[in-house]
């Protein structure tokens, strides 16, 4: 059966969509999605997404590794920033992580009333597509954006996901088409096109250029990251 | 001097942008923009944009022609709907018009704190570009969207306007690029691409297919439509 797929281009617009009965795929390409997938693939036991630095520090006291950023930079007192490259097995293996970021973790928490919440990234896109195809639930792709602005990288990924879902989905709303058109135009030069996006330029300026290519690499990890009992865990 | 140009993809996001000192170009391609430009080009003396049917009926009592739609259809008791094709010289000539639409008139009224407010449509794009190039003010293109959703046709026009402004402007934010990429991909098949957009399908369904090509025709009228003293008038 063909499933409807919608694209919400910014968390500011989330109130326009019903979450009931849907799988929400939260997308924060630069970089929370990649950090979550990498940490779980490299052995982190679970990831708690929180909205504030204070909450993260509370979890840190209870044994979680505190990870996250404000303005792209690691928060003072945290164990890790929001760079997926820091989430090596010897750092995150067998440990719970608490993560707070400017956009991604807020979007995850805003989606909790959905039937299921998955994290979408290029690093696990094939595993994600396999999971989405195996379910009968309609899908809402939620682009985390940047401080409520629409951004290019999350819109690009929404388009890539719709393309990969192919005939299994119906994605004929305007925002879905906008995402698909962007992806189809730049599928062969994603990194060079997105290097010039607002947030990529911000990350390059503060020394995280290497993260860009990493966040856009495909299918590094055959796992899904799903919210279960309020925390994100690896599935599959 | 190069002027910054920003694109606000939906009125829901307008609060993210400063209006101070800027020219706001309000864009509602299907169909308020075209209706306003056509009515003024065909002799309407001025157009008052209002948000509610009740306000429009009040102005009607004071001698204005009442025009507008709800759900795309003409409102009961109004003289006109929101079809630009109805705004012929014998209907609108020498008369003031009051207009209320689902999206466009709300966006015009939400922009009133800007330095200037212009209406943007394909019908007057060259005149608009000439005016924008002659000013030194930064520009905010406000896409009226559909009930706060981002739509394809207004985003397409934002891209067309940025393309026409060319080297006179700096439009390097993500939303500007998204608009420009869409326009560049479909500049040669705008009508066939937009025929399948959400609102075009709605208009076709209720009998307004002819309006689509009309709203996308270029440079039918060499005028600008500017808000002056709270009403929209023809300039140039």
How many DSSP-defined strands of chain A?
A: 11
Query: Which CATH architecture of chain A is right?
Result: Alpha-Beta Complex
Low-confidence stretches of chain A: none
> What fold name goes in the CATH topology slot of chain A?
putative 2-phosphosulfolactate phosphatase
Task: Give your account of this protein's structure.
The structure is a homodimer of 236-residue chains. With 236 residues, chain A is α/β, with parallel strands linked by helices. Chain A has one domain (3-235): putative 2-phosphosulfolactate phosphatase (Alpha-Beta Complex). In chain A, 37% of the residues lie in helices and 21% in strands. Chain A contains ten helices and eleven strands. The first copy, chain A, has a five-stranded parallel sheet, with helices on both faces. A four-stranded mixed sheet of chain A has the order 3-6-4-5. Chain A has a two-stranded antiparallel ribbon with strand order 10-11. In chain A, a hairpin with a 2-residue loop joins strand 10 and strand 11. The model of chain A has no long low-confidence stretch (mean pLDDT 96). At the A-B interface, helix 7 of A face helix 7 of B.
Brief characterization of the structure:
With 236 residues, chain A is of the alpha/beta class. Chain A contains 10 helices and 11 strands.
């Amino acid at each position: 059966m063909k499933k409807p797929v919608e694209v919400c281009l910014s968390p500011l617009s989330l109130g326009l969509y019903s979450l009931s009965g849907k799988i929400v795929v939260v997308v924060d390409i630069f970089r929370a999605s990649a950090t979550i997938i990498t940490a779980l693939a490299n052995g982190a036991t679970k990831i708690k997404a929180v909205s504030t630095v204070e909450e993260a520090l509370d979890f840190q006291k209870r044994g979680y590794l505190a990870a996250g950023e404000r303005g792209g930079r690691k928060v003072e007192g945290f164990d890790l920033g929001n760079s997926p490259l820091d989430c090596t097995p010897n750092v995150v293996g067998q440990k719970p992580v608490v993560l707070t970021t400017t956009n991604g973790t807020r979007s995850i928490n805003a989606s909790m009333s959905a039937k299921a919440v998955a994290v979408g990234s290029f690093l696990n896109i094939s595993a994600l597509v396999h999971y989405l195809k195996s379910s009968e639930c309609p899908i809402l792709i939620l682009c985390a954006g940047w401080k409520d602005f629409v951004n290019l990288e999350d819109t690009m990924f929404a388009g890539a996901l719709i393309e990969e879902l192919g005939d299994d989905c119906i994605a004929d709303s305007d925002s879905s088409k906008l995402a698909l058109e962007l992806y189809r135009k730049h599928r062969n030069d994603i990194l060079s096109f997105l290097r010039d996006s607002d947030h990529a330029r911000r990350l390059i300026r503060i020394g995280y250029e290497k993260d860009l290519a990493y966040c856009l690499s495909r299918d590094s990890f055959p796992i899904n990251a799903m919210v279960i009992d309020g925390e994100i865990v690896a599935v599959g």
